[in-house]
């Protein structure tokens, strides 16, 4: 049942996470997020006046710029930009600052697998740091399907290359609520079961996909806790400043 | 009814919240009005958080999220520091660090008429009040208080302006007076104007006082009130 991973992790084990906010001096919000050796820096500028051409001026516009570690950005980067933009559009409240543009710049520091999920997490933290109004947070994970049919989480670059198929999944974070546990409120329940983005590469059966979803959701609960703790500890820092 | 609903919502008050958290169920309180401040929104029956920060509650019915950010979003009745960018026939165009340029009508000064329009060159620093802040239009400013008096509003001459986070400027404006300013105020004489948009202006007789005070203010962002006092006293010893 167990499959061997080169770094000795169990299939469900994530690489060590690290996150810091406000690392850039001149941007309005910034964050660095790393999962193992994969590290991404996200910077947010804005909201700035005006929307870009072909965008609806009655809503806020998001602009994602993906900077690869080396070289020029090509097709792959464009795809990442589009996925990231759509993901962030669904978590931002676009009606609050109409006719403005918010730029999100993603700088890849090192790519060691699960790059896009790492970027989604970094961008989300950077948006919080910039104080952009959000409906909820998003946490992202990469699930891989090995040739033997096992699902492993948070693969490294080497593992990614060996895999039959993989799925990038983005879930809403688990929220704190004053409503009693298991209350009949369908809204918050829907959110818990929601899925923001799903990108798959390679072929997998429907069963395998649902298996991936389950595993991913279980793992994001931990990611979500990490995110909340991280945001809170750094807000706390500011809180003591104000106090 | 009143008792029950006022106990429940207090659970998240003064806690750190992140976007998406549900702080209140409005359907439970049918005959009460609540006021929502920054960082909160109503989503059907639920009040949810949109910004990370500390949830505050003020009696009887105000809720808001206290957060700090580098970018300013204008809101009505905020006193801000703006910089003149350009002047048009009807308006001065002012940069207030917001998403859009703000308009200051040329008549929005004490006793303002077409005859005595003040001459403000680009780059002038102004202490102004936000009068209109609709998301769809440019914010509108005024150099008078609500009764039409100039009050403290108007151009700031000389001195030194620096930018900080909105959290720091709110701390400087909070009452009781912020410890740094209080300690310095005992020994030194200086003027300070704080805009809620994260701009601070300091002026004093000697440049060294301006430098000491502004550096201390910038440093105090991450300090507690006792640490602020210690910092201020240390600096004062060095100056004198």
TrEMBL record, chain A:
Q: Name one GO cellular component term.
A: nucleolus
Please list the GO terms describing molecular function.
exonuclease activity; RNA binding
Pfam families, sorted:
RNase_PH
* Record domain Exoribonuclease phosphorolytic: where: 13-133
Kindly list the places in or outside the cell where this protein is found, as annotated in its UniProt entry. Answer: Nucleus, Nucleolus
According to its UniProt entry, one GO biological process term is: U4 snRNA 3'-end processing
Key words, A-Z: Exonuclease, Exosome, Hydrolase, Nuclease, Nucleus, RNA-binding, rRNA processing
The text of the family note is: Belongs to the RNase PH family.
**Which PANTHER family does the UniProt entry name for this protein?**
EXOSOME COMPLEX COMPONENT, EXOSOME COMPLEX COMPONENT RRP46
What's the protein called, per UniProt? Exosome complex exonuclease RRP46 homolog
TrEMBL record, chain B:
Protein location: Cytoplasm; Nucleus, Nucleolus
Q: What UniProt keywords are attached to this protein's entry? A: Cytoplasm, Exosome, Nucleus, RNA-binding, rRNA processing
What the entry lists under Pfam families is as follows: KH_6, Rrp40_N, RRP40_S1
Q: Which family does it belong to?
A: Belongs to the RRP40 family.
Q: Which residues form the Exosome complex exonuclease Rrp40 N-terminal domain?
A: 34-71
Q: What is this protein called?
A: Ribosomal RNA-processing protein 40
Q: Which GO terms describe its cellular component?
A: cytoplasmic exosome (RNase complex); nuclear exosome (RNase complex); nucleolus
Q: Name all K Homology domain ranges.
A: 159-207
Key word Glycosyltransferase present: no
Record's keyword annotation contains Lipoprotein: no
Tell me what organism the protein belongs to. Trapa natans
GO molecular function annotations of the record: RNA binding
Q: Could you tell me the Gene Ontology terms of the biological process aspect for this record? A: CUT catabolic process; exonucleolytic trimming to generate mature 3'-end of 5.8S rRNA from tricistronic rRNA transcript (SSU-rRNA, 5.8S rRNA, LSU-rRNA); nuclear polyadenylation-dependent rRNA catabolic process; poly(A)-dependent snoRNA 3'-end processing; TRAMP-dependent tRNA surveillance pathway; U4 snRNA 3'-end processing
């Amino acid at each position: 049942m167990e499959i061997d991973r080169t770094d000795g992790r169990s299939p469900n084990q994530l690489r060590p996470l690290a996150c810091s906010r406000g690392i850039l001096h001149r941007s309005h919000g910034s964050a660095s997020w790393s999962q193992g050796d994969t590290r991404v820096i996200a910077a947010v500028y804005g909201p700035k006046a005006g929307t870009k051409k072909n965008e609806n001026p009655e809503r806020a516009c998001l602009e994602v710029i993906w900077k690869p570690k080396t070289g020029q950005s090509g097709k792959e980067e464009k795809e990442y930009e589009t996925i990231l933009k759509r993901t962030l559009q669904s978590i931002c409240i676009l009606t609050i600052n109409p006719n403005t543009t918010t730029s999100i710049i993603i700088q890849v520091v090192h790519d060691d697998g699960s790059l896009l999920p790492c970027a989604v997490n970094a961008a989300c933290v950077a948006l919080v740091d910039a104080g952009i109004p959000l409906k909820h947070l998003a946490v992202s994970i990469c699930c891989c399907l090995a040739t033997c049919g096992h699902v492993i989480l948070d693969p490294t670059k080497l593992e990614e290359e060996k895999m039959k198929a993989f799925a990038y999944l983005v879930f809403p974070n688990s929220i704190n609520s004053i409503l009693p546990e298991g209350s009949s409120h369908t809204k918050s329940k829907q959110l818990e079961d929601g899925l923001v983005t799903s990108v798959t590469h390679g072929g997998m059966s429907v069963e395998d996909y649902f298996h991936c979803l389950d595993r991913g959701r279980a793992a994001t609960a931990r990611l979500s806790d990490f995110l909340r703790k991280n945001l809170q500890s750094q807000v706390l820092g500011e809180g003591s400043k104000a106090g | 009814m009143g008792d029950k609903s006022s106990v429940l919502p207090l659970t998240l008050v003064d806690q750190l919240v992140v976007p998406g958290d549900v702080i209140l169920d409005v359907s439970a309180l049918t005959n009460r009005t609540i006021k929502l401040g920054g960082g909160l929104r109503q989503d059907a029956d639920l009040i949810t958080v949109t910004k990370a920060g500390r949830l505050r509650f003020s009696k009887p019915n105000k809720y808001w999220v206290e957060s700090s950010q580098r970018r300013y979003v204008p809101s009505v009745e905020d006193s801000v520091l703006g910089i003149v960018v350009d002047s048009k026939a009807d308006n001065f165009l002012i940069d207030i660090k917001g998403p859009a340029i703000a308009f200051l009508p040329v008549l929005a000064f004490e006793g303002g008429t077409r005859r005595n329009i003040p001459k403000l060159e680009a780059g002038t620093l102004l202490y102004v009040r936000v009068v209109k802040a609709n998301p769809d239009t440019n914010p509108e400013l005024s150099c008078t208080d609500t009764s039409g008096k100039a009050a403290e509003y108007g151009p700031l001459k000389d001195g030194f302006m620096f930018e900080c986070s909105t959290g720091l400027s709110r701390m400087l404006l909070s009452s009781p007076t912020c410890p740094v300013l209080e300690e310095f105020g005992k020994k030194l004489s200086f003027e300070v104007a704080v805009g809620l948009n994260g701009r601070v202006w300091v002026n004093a007789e000697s440049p060294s006082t301006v430098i000491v005070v502004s550096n201390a203010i910038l440093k105090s962002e991450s300090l507690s009130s006792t640490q602020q006092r210690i910092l201020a006293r240390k600096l004062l010893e060095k100056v004198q």
